[in-house]
């Protein structure tokens, strides 16, 4: 590598400028590097020949004696200028400097007369084009406007705003535009302030909103916003994307104009001006876009390098700007043409030169340009070459060994072989670009190399260089050979038992199989030597059912992939159907649809059966309960009748009354009383009660033993029901004996 002073580079480059008509113009260019250095100038790509009007100074700068926008012959001194510097290492070109003539047009917008009420807002505007941008000042009544008055706001684009108008603001206004080319005056306009300040409510209204601007970094942007209304609206600013505007370099001019100083790319966006009625949400908005451009600048410069013959040189050039710059490469001042060994990548940010030789030695330049400006950077490629280097290796041969291996052999160079320290084999797919090449180093005593891990059925190119400590030989002749085709790899095989006589073989498609035409499937009983098959299957098939199998034996299933180069290795699986048969016997398969219907029918039957069963149980319980109670009542009355002497009716009532009183008292003490209503329901009274009484008396004129036979012969309809009036039972004294029987008060009512 060489020091900085040896590099041919620009110290000062020409810059953009605005020239004044009939005035001299100087464009500067200063270069450093190894002498001798020759400097020349171009305008719009054409070499400038020294003349009386334009010639180069001793320091390399260009001097134009009288700048002419348009000359008598129709030519112009306006254009893009660049300077070129050259020494014996190469040539470099400076950035392009844009030279324009200073001009000023007539006013295309003049101020207009205005009548505004007191307290309102007045706005005057005048516009004029010029290079450089004219400075516009305002005069009132032929005197410069007092800019110290806070109610007067002057904007850079030729706008005058007057807020809070008063009677003394009335007058005649005009503007004055000035630049290096000229001074011009606009027409006059009269401002009349009428009446007193109105108190009538007026909705907020934006008179003038921000306009769209396109500026360059470090410039100043002024976004205008002037609003009226009663009460006076409050003006605020925001960004449409919600990002904060910030405070650095931000200033409010007048009552609502936004000024942004020292612009950066981050200031680009859409700005919204809002006029709000105080204390309410009533508002009016207007918006304008601000685009900030940035000239191209380098993030990474290309670096000068030295490389031996036959190696690769890489230059990197990264630039940024807004809009993003375009990158162009030059070789000794001329646009670089790409070829097989010269490649541009990454949007031209990377320049690669493969297999360099002496003709590639030059100065390479990276030009970055956008609408905001251009810049350049250069680097030199030095190709190392020494006398006495070996001649190219001889008799290079390549032989195919397998689908992934090639044997390369060669013979040593014919000249200068003593200093050889090794060989480098350069390998590349024949269809790939040069930058995809890779190398393998070989010792100086080896004249063959086995290249492995190649792709099947693919052509490869090979060449060899001999290396010494001082550099490499030229490349040998290139030889091209193809690898053999390859049979497919083993497929993955899975076996699934379907039933007692069938299985399913499945496999997965995979890129590891390589190029294959299809599959071959074989199967057999393990105790037999003969396979059934092959079953030929297409390459897109991934499953096959094997049927009509014998459940009592074990089967072997084999699958392989094949192509035009032959059959690949097979995958073997063993399967037995015996366990499936046993499981089927123990757990017979079910018909799911039939079972589902049966389940639905069974469920309905169970529900109906439950309802019928519950109904039967309820009826049984009722029958048993009422039957038991009826039988109990009957038995008790029979016992009472049998235990009472059979006497005439007139006497029986008294006897029963006396006999039953004791029984009733006993029943009362035991808590067992009959429900009279229930008895009447179960045993209704006979219509001829007397006949029943007589029949019962005659039938039992003589006492009979108290036994079951007598009870069973007693008719049910011969019972009579007796109702007695309850008598109070005196309580026994505490600790005394039981009370005496109650006296007989006469017969009870007969029911």
Automatic annotation (TrEMBL):
CDD domains (UniProt xref): FN3
TM stretches of this protein: 606-626
GO cellular component: membrane
Membrane topology: Single-pass membrane protein
Ranges of Pro residues composition bias in the record: 727-744
Start and end residues of each stretch annotated as Disordered: 643-751
A single BP term in Gene Ontology: cell-cell adhesion
Location in or out of the cell: Membrane
Domain Fibronectin type-III: 392-486, 487-583
InterPro entries, alphabetized: FN3_dom (IPR003961), FN3_sf (IPR036116), Ig-like_dom (IPR007110), Ig-like_dom_sf (IPR036179), Ig-like_fold (IPR013783), Ig_I-set (IPR013098), Ig_sub (IPR003599), Ig_sub2 (IPR003598)
Domain Ig-like intervals: 8-100, 105-192, 204-287, 295-382
Polar residues: bias regions: 643-657, 686-701
Sequence ranges of Basic and acidic residues compositional bias: 660-670
UniProt keyword annotations, A-Z: Disulfide bond, Glycoprotein, Immunoglobulin domain, Membrane, Repeat, Signal, Transmembrane, Transmembrane helix
Primary location: membrane
Similarity field: Belongs to the immunoglobulin superfamily. DCC family.
Matches recorded under PANTHER family: IMMUNOGLOBULIN SUPERFAMILY DCC SUBCLASS MEMBER 3, PROTEIN SIDEKICK
Protein name: Immunoglobulin superfamily DCC subclass member 3
Lineage, highest ranks first: Eukaryota, Metazoa, Chordata, Craniata, Vertebrata
Gene for this chain: Igdcc3
């Amino acid at each position: 590598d060489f020091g900085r002073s040896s590099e041919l580079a620009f110290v000062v480059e020409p810059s953009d400028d605005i020239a004044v008509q009939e005035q001299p113009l100087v464009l500067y260019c200063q270069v450093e590097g190894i002498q001798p250095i020759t400097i020349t100038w171009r305008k719009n790509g054409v070499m400038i020949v020294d003349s009386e009007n334009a010639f180069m100074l001793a320091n390399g700068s260009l001097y134009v004696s009288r700048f002419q926008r348009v000359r008598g012959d129709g030519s112009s001194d306006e254009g893009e200028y660049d300077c070129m510097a050259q020494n014996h290492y190469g040539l470099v070109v400076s950035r392009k400097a844009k030279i324009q003539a200073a001009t000023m047009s007539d006013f295309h917008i003049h101020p207009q007369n205005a009548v505004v009420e007191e307290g309102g807002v007045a706005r005057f505007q005048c516009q004029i084009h010029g290079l450089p941008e004219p400075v516009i000042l305002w005069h009132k009544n032929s005197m410069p406007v007092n800019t110290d008055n806070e109610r007067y706001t002057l904007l850079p684009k030729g706008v005058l705003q007057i807020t809070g108008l008063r009677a003394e603001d009335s007058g005649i206004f005009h503007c004055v535009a000035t630049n290096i080319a000229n001074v011009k005056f606009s027409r006059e306009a009269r401002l009349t302030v009428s009446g007193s300040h109105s108190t009538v409510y007026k909705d907020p209204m934006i008179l003038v909103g921000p306009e769209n601007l396109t500026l360059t970094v470090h410039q100043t942007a002024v976004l205008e916003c002037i609003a009226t209304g009663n009460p006076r609206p409050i003006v605020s600013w925001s960004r449409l994307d919600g990002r904060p505007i910030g405070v650095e370099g931000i200033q409010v001019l007048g009552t609502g104009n936004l000024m942004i100083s020292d612009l950066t790319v981050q200031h680009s966006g859409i700005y919204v001006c809002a006029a709000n009625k105080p204390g309410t949400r009533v508002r009016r908005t207007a918006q304008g876009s601000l685009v900030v451009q940035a000239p191209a600048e380098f993030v990474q410069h290309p670096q000068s390098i030295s490389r031996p013959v036959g190696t690769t040189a890489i230059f990197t050039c990264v630039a940024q700007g807004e809009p993003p710059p375009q990158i162009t490469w030059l070789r000794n001042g001329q646009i670089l043409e790409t070829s097989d060994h010269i490649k541009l990548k990454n949007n031209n940010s990377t320049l690669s030169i493969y297999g360099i030789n002496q003709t590639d030695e030059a100065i390479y330049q990276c030009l970055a340009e956008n609408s905001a400006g251009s810049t350049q950077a250069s680097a030199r490629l030095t190709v190392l070459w020494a006398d006495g280097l070996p001649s190219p290796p001889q008799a290079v041969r390549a032989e195919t060994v397998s689908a992934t291996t090639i044997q390369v052999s060669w013979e040593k160079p014919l000249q200068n072989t003593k200093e050889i320290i090794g060989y480098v084999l350069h390998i590349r797919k024949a269809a790939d670009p040069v930058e995809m090449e890779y190398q393998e180093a070989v010792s100086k005593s080896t004249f063959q190399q086995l290249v492995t891990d190649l792709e099947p059925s693919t052509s490869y190119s090979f060449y060899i260089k001999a290396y010494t400590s001082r550099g490499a030989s030229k490349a040998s002749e290139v030889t091209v050979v193809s690898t053999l085709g390859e049979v497919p790899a083993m497929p993955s095989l899975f076996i699934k038992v379907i039933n007692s006589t069938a299985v399913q073989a499945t496999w997965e498609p995979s890129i590891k199989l390589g190029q294959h035409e299809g599959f071959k499937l074989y199967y057999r009983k393990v105790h037999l030597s003969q396979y059934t098959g092959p079953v030929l299957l297409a390459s897109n098939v991934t499953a096959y059912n094997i049927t009509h199998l014998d459940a009592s034996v074990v089967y072997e299933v084999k699958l392989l992939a094949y192509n035009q180069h032959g059959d690949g290795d097979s995958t073997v699986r063993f399967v037995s159907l015996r366990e499936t048969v046993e499981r089927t016997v123990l757990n017979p398969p079910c018909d799911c649809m039939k079972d589902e219907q049966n389940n639905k029918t069974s469920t309905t039957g169970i529900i109906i059966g439950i309802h019928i069963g519950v109904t039967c149980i309820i009826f049984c319980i009722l029958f048993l309960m009422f039957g038991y109670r009826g039988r109990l009542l009957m038995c008790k009355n029979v016992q009472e009748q049998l235990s009472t002497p059979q006497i005439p009716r007139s006497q029986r009532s008294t006897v029963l009354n006396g006999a039953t009183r004791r029984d009733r008292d006993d029943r009362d003490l035991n808590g067992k009383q009959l429900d009279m209503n229930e008895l009447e329901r179960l045993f209704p009274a006979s219509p001829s009660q007397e006949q029943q009484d007589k029949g019962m008396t005659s039938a039992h004129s003589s006492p009979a033993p108290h036994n079951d036979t007598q009870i069973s012969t007693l008719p049910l309809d011969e019972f009579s029901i007796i109702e007695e009036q309850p008598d109070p039972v005196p309580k026994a004294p505490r600790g005394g004996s039981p009370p005496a029987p109650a006296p007989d008060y006469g017969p009870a009512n007969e029911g």
